[in-house]
Amino acid sequence: MKILYATSEAVPFCKTGGLADVAGSLPAALAAEGAEVAVVLPLYRRVRERFGSQLTFLCYDYVNLGWRHVYCGLFSLEKDGVTWYFLDNEQYFDRPDLYGYMDDGERFGFFSRAVVRMLDHMAFWPDVINCNDWQTALVPIYLKDDGVREDRFRSIRTTLTVHNIEYQGRFNPYVLGDLFGLDAGWVEDGTLLMDGDLNLLKGAILCADAVNAVSPTYANELKMAYFAHRMESVMRQCEYKLYGVLNGIDMERYDPAKDPSIAANFSAEDMSGKDADKAHLQRLAGLREEPHVPIVAIVSRLVSHKGLDLICEVLHDMMKLPLQLVVLGKGDKKYEEFFHWAAQQYPGRMSVRLDYNEELSMAIYAGADLFLMPSKSEPCGLSQMIAMRYGTVPIVRETGGLKDTVHPYEAWRDAGNGFTFANYASNDMLHVIREAVYLYKDYPDAFGRLRKRAMECDFSWARSAGEYLRIYAGVTGQVWPAPEAAPAEEAPAAEAASPEAAPATPAEAAEEPRPFEEPAPAAPPAPKAVPAEKAVKKAPARRAAKKTVSPEKAAPAEKAPAVTAETAPAAEPGKRGPKAKGAPKAAGKKAAGETKKKGTAAKK
Ligand code: GLC
What we know:
Distance between the termini: 35 Å
Number of strands: 18
Bound molecules: alpha-D-glucopyranose
Structural class: alpha/beta
Largest sheet: 9 strands, mixed
Strand order of the largest sheet: 3-4-5-2-1-6-7-11-12
Oligomer: single chain
């Protein structure tokens, strides 16, 4: 299976949010499962500055977009069994920030166009392109548009991952031809039209072969007006191809037993280091050094959907409890001002840092006792998982990925891995904070067991990678894992993962989040040959495959996704476009060709 992962950001190269964490981990996890994986992202200035010396220049070509004929350089780098491609155009990407420019539409229109046009120069012709959010939402559209004229584009299936439906890529329909080089029909037939706007995400949701949200609960929520930012009817229309796959975290990077960035290491078996981390955090944050007072932590962007209004409403009641509060984050002025003011009311008990600071955030995950995340909506959320890994017990509202990862404490049967509340109501939140604080103070043994359960949760990417591969198998009609790779006695496991049986149906995936079960082992796939004649650069060596396909997750055959081998046009990977143009030139010195900037500020 050949996967191209198209993203506008990825760790360690460039990051503004959770998408970068996902794009930095999932591709390697897919490769570890035996897939051939490449990632493509823009060559931003900060990537060139920090990683420029590690990049190999492969070739350049010109991309036609509307009336423009634009230079595009192709660079690559090999990492963890994955080929990373960077598309270069200095006019668009040699800027200090990733987003926030008036021509973001033109920039990411170019990027999406170039992803499709530069396929000819990449190491393999993908079976699937996985797009992410609005910045790469035009990829499925261009594939369909090009596919009308060029057969070979019809062999590629597309999946769209929705990390946050709030950001849709909305523009004035007037710019469709000029900026994106598309015929007016795309708007006139409604594919790209939403509430009078040109809406790129809507187009991708309609045109992709599968859509997945970053948690099963979020996949369900996207069908409801409260969460969907007006996209609920489109999501309901596409329910047949909608999945929810929970993100993972990098379990190696976030390991309290090995993490060099924290004051003292510890593990679920030996928690003694956590006390030292707590004392360290109290010193760092200017809190009183009280080992038996629980520290409640908030590490968050200070924006409304993170549920901060609830905290503002009951902060003074919270502070009547025997707790300390530490807040790290920046964002909207009104929250920054509130927290800044509140911290002054409770010296030694409340500490606020209006900043994004990786080092301090790790000190907080390691040193705090409780992690508060009362989000109004949360597609997946990564910080609650990181907090749990460091034995900081989460208190969350039951929404999106928070609901799928945190299970409420049940004293009567000593179960659960955190505290939860359902309604977006400050008193409900206060009630569970009180419950958590008094469990910590009055029942330290029970709290210790709860903390251990939180630390032992499996949030590894291997689980999610298996689910992604089952979706890819569903849309391509390929069998995954490849049956020829399965030793005879393990054949049933491979069978269970076939496209007819394996991919959980969209509905099931959304209704049955089972993030804590143990995946059953299945057979490793056979390594596949790289089509040498197409290789501009050698395909990455794949790591020894470790299968984690769970046969009991198999869905009945009649519920397989709509796009299968029968409906998919035959692949014609042999037909390729023109070869790379010209001889290598100085890395990225050439800017856009005959381009002209347009005022294209995205509405969202
Ligand atoms: C977005 C979501 C967040 C999710 C992340 C990665 O930033 O808001 O909940 O964890 O994407 O998918």
